[in-house]
Design a protein that fits this description.
It is a single chain. The protein is α+β, with helices and mostly antiparallel strands. It has 2 domains: 2-163, Ribonuclease iii, N-terminal Endonuclease Domain, Chain A (Orthogonal Bundle), CATH 1.10.1520; 171-235, 2-Layer Sandwich (Double Stranded RNA Binding Domain), CATH 3.30.160.20. It has helices at 16-26, 33-39, 55-76, 82-92, 95-104, 115-119, 126-144, 146-163, 171-181, 221-235, and strands at residues 2-4, 10-12, 188-195, 202-209, 212-218. The strands form 2 sheets. The chain has a 3-stranded antiparallel sheet, with helices on one face. It is globular, with a radius of gyration of 18 Å. Mean pLDDT is 88; it is low at 1-13.
């Protein structure tokens, strides 16, 4: 069964409680509930080739989130140069940061994921949670506009912004310094795979120090490297 979006698009059916919980989390009653249903639909539960999944909404949500946070940082730190604002932005919109917000708000319970993938724990994976949060921001923007999306982003990221007393180092720099302090080989980055069309590629990158490694995926090689570095820093001893 499908929900028909008021604009005419069919999206997979969601139990009412999922949509209600997501609306409550976002602080918005959707005029087009089909957008929210789509934002909560993992590729595994969508139609052929992922049509009807949250990937398109994630695409726009990522850009909306970046704009809102960049604007916020410009206003919050008027004396800082771009070289310091960049690492702040990267940390706040990173996959681990977004996944932590999603996990704290039980977003995994709101997602529509194929039963087989649920058994594998896909709905609780960090990248899936982060992508879903971005898709929800995209749906909120399309349904209610930038100001409503801004209010939500400010609410869920306020504590993280307040915690940035000093600009964080970008993950690749921080990881390199970690290795140098311990006289270890420098981080080794490798592209595991590259997929998707030229206008929307997806890179999977791994980074290794000694016998410890981590990986990440993103739409650009450098972004995937940064996220992989951040993931590796998360499991290395301090």
């Amino acid at each position: 069964m499908a929900i028909r979006d008021p604009l005419g698009a069919d999206v997979p059916h969601h139990p009412v409680n999922r949509l209600a919980e997501a609306s409550k989390f976002l602080g918005h009653d959707f005029a087009r509930p089909g957008l929210l249903a789509e934002a909560l639909t993992h590729r595994s539960a969508a139609g052929a080739r992922g049509i009807g999944s949250n990937e398109r909404l994630e695409f726009i949500g990522d850009r909306v989130l970046g704009l809102i946070v960049a604007e916020w940082l410009i206003e919050r730190f008027p004396q800082e140069p771009e070289g310091k604002l960049g690492p702040r932005l990267a940390a706040l919109v990173s996959k681990p940061a977004l996944a932590a917000i999603a996990e704290a708000n039980q977003v995994s319970e709101m997602l529509n994921v194929a039963p087989g993938e649920v058994k594998r724990g896909v709905h609780s994976q960090a990248n899936v949670l982060a992508d879903a949060l971005e898709a929800m921001i995209g749906a909120l923007f399309l349904d209610a506009g930038l100001e409503r999306a801004r209010l939500f982003v400010h609410r869920v990221l306020a504590s993280a912004v307040d915690a940035q007393a000093t600009p964080p180092k970008d993950p690749k720099t921080a990881l390199q310094e970690w290795a140098l302090k311990r006289a270890l080989p420098l981080p080794n980055y490798q592209v595991i795979s590259q997929s998707g069309p030229s206008h929307a590629p997806n890179f999977v990158v791994s980074v290794t120090i000694g016998e410890v490694s981590a990986s990440a995926s993103a739409g650009a090689k450098r972004a995937a490297e940064q996220e992989a570095a951040q993931n590796l820093l998360g499991i290395l001893p301090k």
